[in-house]
Specification:
This protein has 144 residues and is an alpha+beta fold. Helix content is 49%, strand content 19%. It is built from five helices and three strands; from the N terminus they run H-E-E-E-H-H-H-H. The protein binds zinc ion.
């Protein structure tokens, strides 16, 4: 088994088990992200305690790539500050565009599973959807 197989298992596991697919009680923000190319419509819900992201979830419909990307992202950002989460979103986007170095990519933990998605152009938007939604939320709250 090579590393790519391990990573695709992570993607499969999250898309099947839907660990983070639920509504939060009293979320601080809900934001819809959609990818008309594929039909993905995923709403991200986040709960903050001052600067920390204490909880997160997603609802809606999407393909295996978009939903598992959202789920893995939520696991990664829980307990992080808004600034840390924004940095992770930028690293993820940079990883897909092949614009960041390996050292930074390690910070993405399980989300590194999507590294090779750039070889499948049709699925890139699916993988990026939740991360762009997260970035949008964090930029909005930062400007408040
Ligand atoms: Zn999709």
């Amino acid at each position: 088994m090579n590393l790519n197989d391990v990573y695709s298992e992570v993607i499969l596991e999250h898309s099947q088990n839907k660990f983070n697919k639920k509504h939060l009680e009293n979320p601080d923000v809900c934001k819809l992200g959609s990818n008309p190319n594929c039909g993905d419509e995923i709403t991200l819900e986040l709960k903050f305690d001052k600067d920390i992201i204490v909880d997160g979830s997603y609802t809606g419909q999407g393909c295996a790539i978009s939903t598992s990307s959202a789920s893995i992202m939520i696991d990664l950002i829980k307990g992080k500050t808004k600034a840390e989460a924004l940095e992770l979103a930028n690293i993820f986007i940079g990883m897909i565009k092949k614009e960041v170095d390996e050292e930074k990519i390690e910070k993405l933990e399980d989300a590194q599973a999507f590294k090779n998605i750039s070889n499948m152009p049709a699925r890139v938007k699916c993988a990026l959807l939740a991360w762009y939604t997260l970035k949008g939320i964090l930029e909005e709250v930062a400007n408040k």
